[in-house]
């Protein structure tokens, strides 16, 4: 790159790997650090999609492992066996005879290194859950027969509600040719989305409502700028259990309807 072209660089976004950005912000060994040493005006930032994917991974990792493993096991099972895919397709065709809305779709292949893969796989499993349930009841062995139990399906729906909130912004920021105004606007909306879960923003008995997203963004900004090596004080960010439960069920009416059959102890488990 010619020096005359370098002057047009405004900043560098990376995954904050040591090869790009060393712990020493200016003059470090990372490629972005060395570039900044030549061009002091450029800004070094954490790639938005990568940062949100870390949030998504943390969300998935905090979910009970025995249930997330079921999702990856189902995907692996069908991606490695054309025979099982054919059996599932046959079941779907039979279901279409009595239900015209039944879909003939295959389970998606889970690719761990692909950011949106887990959510897309989970979405497909929920989309064809009836045919998968029949498949495991007829062909499953041991615990496989209960992979698509009502309890598990509800848990999968809950997980999907949570991770799809984040995943939609990952896909958005992966889009080519986003203009600066769209980026800023959607960043604020993303901040507001997190604010809905963190602060008392939209709960029915909320004491304060942030109608103005700029106001909420200013409230969240100190947390965005926190040094990652320091512990964040979460006391202000915690939501009362009943407020969150009320808010979540209001936002996801389908899950609310399906969970009505649960007893009180089971409902506590889900929240």
Describe this structure in words.
α3 (48-62) runs antiparallel to α8 (150-173), α8 (150-173) packs antiparallel against α9 (180-198) and α9 (180-198) crosses α10. The protein contains 13 helices and 2 strands; from the N terminus they run αβαβααααααααααα. Helices cover 59% and strands 3% of the residues. It starts with a helix and ends with a helix. β1, α2 and β2 form a beta-alpha-beta unit. Among the domains are: 1-46, no CATH class; 64-167, no CATH class. The protein has 271 residues and is mainly alpha-helical. The longest helix is centred in the middle third of the chain and has 24 residues, at 150-173. Mean pLDDT is 76; it is low at 200-211 and 226-239.
Lay out the secondary structure.
Elements: H1 3-6, E1 11-14, H2 31-38, E2 43-46, H3 48-62, H4 65-79, H5 82-98, H6 117-127, H7 129-139, H8 150-173, H9 180-198, H10 213-224, H11 241-251, H12 253-258, H13 264-270
Parallel strand pairs: 1-2
Helix pairs in contact: 3-8, 5-7, 6-8, 8-9, 9-10
């Amino acid at each position: 790159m010619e020096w005359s072209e370098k002057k047009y660089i405004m900043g560098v976004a990376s995954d904050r790997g040591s090869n790009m950005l060393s712990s020493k912000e200016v003059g470090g060994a990372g490629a972005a650090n060395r570039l900044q040493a030549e061009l002091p005006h450029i800004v070094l930032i954490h790639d938005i999609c990568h940062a949100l994917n870390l949030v998504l991974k943390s969300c998935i990792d905090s979910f009970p492992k025995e249930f997330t493993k079921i999702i990856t096991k189902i995907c692996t099972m069908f991606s490695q066996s054309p025979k099982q895919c054919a059996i599932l397709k046959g079941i779907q065709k039979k279901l279409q005879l009595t239900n015209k809305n039944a879909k003939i779709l295959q389970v998606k292949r889970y690719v761990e290194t692909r950011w949106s893969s887990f959510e897309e796989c989970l979405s497909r499993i929920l989309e064809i859950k009836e045919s998968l349930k029949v498949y495991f009841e007829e062909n499953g062995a041991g615990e496989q027969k209960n992979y698509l139990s009502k309890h598990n399906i509800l848990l999968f729906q809950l997980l999907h509600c949570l991770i799809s909130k984040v995943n939609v912004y990952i896909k958005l920021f992966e889009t080519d040719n986003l203009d600066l105004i769209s980026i800023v606007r959607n960043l604020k909306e993303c901040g507001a989305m997190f604010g809905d879960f963190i602060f008392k923003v939209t709960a029915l008995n909320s004491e304060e409502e942030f109608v103005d997203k700029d106001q909420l963004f200013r409230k969240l900004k100190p947390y965005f700028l926190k040094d990652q090596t320091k512990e964040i004080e979460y006391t202000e960010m915690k939501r009362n259990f009943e407020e969150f439960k009320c808010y979540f069920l209001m936002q996801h009416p389908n899950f609310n309807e399906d969970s009505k059959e649960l007893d009180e102890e089971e409902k506590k488990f889900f929240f």
